[in-house]
Amino acid sequence: MYDFVRFKEVWMSLLWKGVRIIAGIVVVWSLVANFLNLSMSFSGLPPREKEEIVIYEKLFAPIRFALFTEGYDGRNLGYVSARSGPDKPGDPLDDVRRGKLRYVAIPLILLPDPQGMPYLIGDYTGGDPIPESLEGFVKIHDDHSGLVLYKKVSQ
Amino acid sequence: MNVDVGLAFLQAILVMTLLGFFVIELLLPPGAISRWLVWALAPAVGAGMCSMIIFLFRRPMFTVERGLLVILFGLWVWKRRPPTPNVARLLAYRIPFLNFLLFSAMLVALNAAVERIDHIPHGGTDGYAIWNSHARYLFRDPHSWQQHIQNTHLPDYPLLLPTLLARVWRYSGDVPDLGGLLGLLFPVIAIAVLGTALAELRGSSAGVLVAFALLTSSYYMVLGTHQEADIPLSAFILCTVALIYLYFERKPAPKGLLILAGFLAGSAAWTKNEGILFFVATSIALAFPVLWKPRLTLPRVGVFLIGAALPLAVLVYFKIAIAPGNYLVSGRTSSDLAAKVMDLDRHPTIFGAFLHTAWVFGKWAVHPIIPLLAFLVWRGFDRHEIRAFRWLTAAGILLIALGGYYWIYVITPIELSVHLGSSLDRLLMHLWPSAIFVIGLAAKREGINTEKI
Hints:
The complex is a heterodimer of chains A (about 160) and B (about 450). Chain A is an alpha/beta fold and about 160 residues long. Chain A has helices at about 1-40, 50-70, 90-105; strands spanning about 75-80, 110, 120-125, 135, 135-140, 145-150. In chain A, a hairpin with a 2-residue loop joins strand 4 (about 135) and strand 5 (about 135-140). By secondary structure, chain B is mainly α. The N and C termini of chain B lie far apart (about 55 Å).
């Protein structure tokens, strides 16, 4: 009887030690696997120069300066592109690009509707042909980057 | 980014951390929590304070911050009479091996995260469209931001993160990368609070393991670089839950812990609209025992609300005076809401999405619940702990918040699959650090017999 109880205790103790060793291995293995996964999850992004907002920031700086030299102290700017603008329906892709340009332009306010705007930003960065003028507007800044500034023609 | 910008950024973080440190030290009796935990909590408390300082004072922000720093330092020296630092003891300190492993892994991860920020300096989609846009209006349009912020996406979102970023820009200049570095501070705070709090409560190996589980939750760290408010919110939630647990665990319970918890829960509400839900969940969990212990519970809730008063006042002012209505509630009718609630197809869809997303939201190789359960087996499961009021309160807060998220999806006006797909992983991330904190608390303390479960 004594031997059986002792035998059971020894086996239970060994079994428990085994379970704890396996648990320890699971802990170490899981954390190492997750750490390797973490290292990989940070990579795979295109270089900074290819990031669309970084590009827009660079392209918008001369336009901001052009507005400054024009003496424009208002806030609102209209947005046009080859697909959006007067007499053209909006375009979902343009919504994304305008969203980015809207962030870049702050504190200027970029509005989708060009009606009543003194200036328009023309976004032709996708390689679309740049019109010399839009109805009621004339081009006043174009450094061939694709982002241009139009000014309303005074009546 | 040059050295001057980097140094100015460090100065901004140092001032913020010191403000938090002195407030914690002054609110708590000596030895209430370890010095490590005080330092881990300090940037979170300082972040809440600095956000409100710039929101309320704007131009004299530097004067207010520095004046407050001098006053708090004077009070700290007067009240605490800190001994001269023992340099020999500091030099003799040897870092434990497990802590060394965690610090090394953190350095590697932070280095990779900083490199990632260099690739996306303006953050992820929500980062630039919401949080950085708000910060730019605060910084570039100081006289009329209240009016013009309405032109951004979701202008009703609270302003803790944008004000902190505008503050950093006032220190360092308008450098976009600083938003990413600021965003990275909050995962570091969460890892530090998780590690130090659990080390204090369950031993250093528990602290290191659970902190490691958070560090290796890939999406948590990646989100930190996206300059979005989800990770700051998760850090405030964790700090609040940890402080409430410590309040109930300490004998006698220091009221300062509950005041700090209130302040941080209020800061969570000032970070994101979901933080308001968390604040309500915490208040409910704290007030629940009023049914059988009103004399003990009501003063406790009162102390918690005293801590939350300032951030809540700022939030209420913002919501009433500046923010437009929220898309979830604006223009909704009771019949519309009732129709959503009664639509029985929505419930299994949401429940299924919760179950599926809970398994994958961290984008990890192995779900950390596996090593955490293995750790409980290895260390031993504390049955008494999970029946204790302190543990039930901490877990209850998270369950109420999770239930709140469920009901938001039930009544959302956005198409359900779109809303679930675009936000559920981030919502679960809010509660993740606190959830693993609560799981870690179920382990036996270090040194206690672990031969049997």
